[in-house]
Amino acid sequence: MELNEDKTIMAETGAAAEADDTLKGKSKLKKFEGIICLAVVLGIFYYLGQIMGMANMLNTLMHTAHDLLLNTVFYLMAICVLTGAIGRIFVEFGVVSLAERALRPLMKPLFNLPGVASLGAVMTFLSDNPAIISLASDKRFSSYFKKFQFISLTNFGTAFGMGLLVMVFMVGQGYFWQPLIGLFGAFCGCIVSTRMMQYFVLKNFPHYAMEEAGLAKKGAAKEEEEEKGASGFTRVLNSLLDGGRTGVDVGIAIIPGVLIISSLVMLLTFGPSADGSYTGAAYEGVAFLPWIAGKINFIFDFLFGFGDPHLVAFPITALGAVGAALGLVPNFISQGWVDGNAIAVFTAIGMCWSGYLSTHTAMLDSLGYRELTSKAILSHTVGGICAAIVAHLIFVFVSFLIA
Predict the structure, then answer these.
(1) Cys-Cys link to 348, which of 85, 114, 266, 391 (CB 3.0-4.6 A)?
(2) CA 118 to chain centre
(3) Nearest by Cα to 45 from 268, 258, 256, 283
(4) CA-based end-to-end distance of the chain
(5) pLDDT tens, position by position, 48-106
(6) Are 161 and 200 in contact (CB under 8 A)?
């Protein structure tokens, strides 16, 4: 009896010692994490400050963030308010249900999403990525989705972000059928990105396959009956105001992601001012990402058909903001670097990526799934590359048929 008690005491003592060692190990790891974090942050600021000058670097960061807040975030917030209002109108008057029934045969086999998701694609194509959040925030819209499908809406909607703007811009440069090839490429990239994201979500959270994404609030059915009993004008007014209010909340939620990530991407993408000096103005940088891409341009030439290394700047810039990437095109055309293939690839990758690096974090954060941001970014990176490859191959094929 005493022997058994002694064994029990020894086992408990050993377990306690092991737990104590584990805690000490974690404590040491945390200390090292702090040192590593400090070293990385100081290293980045030293590298940027050495090239730009510390004062210029800090001024550029602040001016870039300020300009993004005024000219990008508030613009996106306006988009969210308008699309939120329109989306709520569509939900209120049955357009969403109609889309669900009409497009279910197409959406399910291609994207593994309910037909109602197509409304998100239309809204982001006409506006920008955050429009999908305005729709997803509506309980009646999200009730069509399982959780794994709902989370993948971030990737699905982003693939068509600012699509109309990209298409119109490319047509304005004198290219007509090439942007259509790019649109098809973005469609293919969207399939890859959405399906890949769903795979990652189900791998980490298998129970999301059965859980509903949006459950109606208590009394929602009663409220809906009351709303339907109201006059048409009242329903329209309530839908517009409620949807617009949701858009304001979403616009505020995306501020941290856009300002922090976009500012860093811009700093690493763009170069000095026109005369080659650093002035501390917004959107100056060290052009580190284009320099890296230039070293491996043979890969982009093989995959995308880029004949000039400067063209790599477009997809890199599109990571942060497709609007900024489009601003590069006129200069590329004047330099003679752009051909029809480049336009098709630019359209595909610009539309599919459309600044996802600066918006995915904010979008998933606002949806409540921040921990899956890395999976969403990885999936969309692969999707954008696939979109560009498809556009390049189709352009080569069409060119062969025309020749």
Answers:
(1) 391
(2) 17
(3) 268
(4) 94
(5) 989 999 999 999 999 988 988 887 778 767 877 877 787 778 777 877 677 767 777 88
(6) no
